[in-house]
Amino acid sequence: MKEISILTSHLFNLNSEGSYVIPGGGVERYIWELCESIQELGMKITVHQLTSIGSFHKQIGNIEIIGRQVREEERVQKIMQMSDTIDGLIVYAGIEELGPAFPYQIGSIGISYAQGSVVDCSLEEATYDRLQQIVVVNTLALAGIRCYQHTKEQALGIVIRQSVDLLKFKPVLHWSELRNALRIVFPRLLDQGREVLNTLLLIDRILQVYPEVIVEFANESEEENEYTFAFRLWLKNHPHKGRIFNEKYSFRKMDEAYKKANIVVIPSFFKEGSSYSCLEAMSCGIPIIAGNRGGINDFIVDGYNGILVEPLEDHLFNGISRLLDHADVRRYLGSNGRRTAGAFDKKVWKLQWIKLFKHMLDADIGSKEKRPAD
User: Which residue numbers delimit the Glycosyl transferase family domain (predicted)?
Assistant: First the structure.
């Protein structure tokens, strides 16, 4: 049986109350869906997850997950040691965290998310050239990777964006628990990157001006921080708290949130690679208003399948007001969003990865026997 190993710092959230919970973040979901696709091919998949919490070992079908405890200062050295001992094709997930000068195993694959990475194009050697191929999830990441490539005759970097299950996330007839109510869904975690405080001020204005509006925060359980504390404090004595809901969904259940939504808002100010929530809402035919940041721009064409604005309170309020006031605009953007989502069908995403894996495995690229000596 062919074997593929993924090296990552992401997958299971060991701080969660449940055992080995897969977070709904984009990085973790991308890795897990990749694991499931490899498993469907009948290949053995092993995930090596570095963690400061503690070592663990878990088996899910043909997917083996090995948690390796490591201190932060030992992290790079530990990955180098693991790379030397692993047989089969290696996939480094999150190469922007390791950097271009890391001694990747020759013949391996790197995945880049370009979240918070800093590009230094002055580096002229010891770059990503050791990798056989680099997969990026958005064009923002691709630009950063291409900047480093000085020696390759053929530039590395192919874009395999996130995907959506078109059969699961599909338009439905809208319903609401209140007659003539309109539900705005914020499918985000509460953290600084999502501009929590500005979002709460925005919602204050919306609920005051539009008495028919219901607001729902739809996310999975998250760790306690100053932003979740601020949210609870804000909600506790809110004059419209009867129209504010904070619902918990695993990423596998997010379609339930979109079935109730009339508008989806993604107000990310800076922390955004590309967004599963954006694709899923589009696939459900829900009009989206989002901050014009990061990988969101790969999905939304302003005025055609959504609204892109500066992610500031006034801009977001004006965009949401336009959608609330004009049902025809909601229908137009939602319909075009569903059409756009067809280009990101999960079936196509799987075929892209399968094609890449088969090419490398058929040529036995990445096996220890075929790795040249440094």
Answer: 252-339
